[in-house]
Give the backbone structure.
Amino acid sequence: MVSLARKRVYRAVWITLVSALVAGCAQAPALPQSSGYPPAGGLRAWVDAPLDGTSLSLPVTYPVVCHGTDASGVSAVEFSADGSVIETTSNPSPSQTLFTAHFAWQPTVPGDYVLQCRALNPDGQWSTPAAAHVEVLAAIMPTDTSTPMLTPSPTPTPTATPTPEPAGLAFAAQVSTSEFHYPRDCVPDPSAVTITVAVSGAPQPTGVLLFHRYRNQSTGDSGAWNEGRSMTPLGDGQFRVTVSWEAIPEIDSLRSSGDPAWFLYQFVATGSQGTIVGRSQTFSDVTLTACE
């Protein structure tokens, strides 16, 4: 049998070990919260894009991104602007506990907007709305500075008369192809052009819009400018966008004639408040023709 003294020793050691473990837990540092998500717990939603305080310039189509999460799943995410519902995106797999929804927002007038999204779970419960405040500024219009020369040659070469670039900014453009096609009883290949621009100088823009149109090489007639396409930032002052023949305004008029055309494009650089900080010449180094 164990003596009374030895039992007392065992008890003292046990109490010491337990006290040490409790003290260690009390002093353990708290786990850091993920900066990309709101605090965990329950049905909730948050806006990934745009960031709160973002400024945009008309015309614009902005990809609003929202997340919804709940332990029971997410059935849908609802988007609204200034309190009016503008889109509800259903989740094809409502048992998913995390759902990402996208909405192409196209504001038509300048002003301050409150964009909101909220998540719906399979039990019919809505989360508290998450919000982002966005400033939409007035439209930015392109200027057509190119003057391609018309010649009877079957493959005319355009020349451009550029306007001086705004002081401090320079635009260096690269294209994936010098010729792309539109369909005319055939399948176009390539059917799009990818344009990359490197903007150098100061002030460095926060965004670049691409404006484009076609000009018929046979008649000199031009289509309308597009409404301005936001280019994707690549870092180090570079931006990129891909334009297909389908995105060219009034392209059906050119298709009916089958004529070759110049694809004209211009870059407009914008600052943090959506103001114009630079504008390039109009480029005309890409040809648009009917596929064969």
Q: What stands out?
A: The chain has two domains: 44-137, 169-290. The chain is about 10% helix and 45% strand. The longest helix spans residues 4-27.
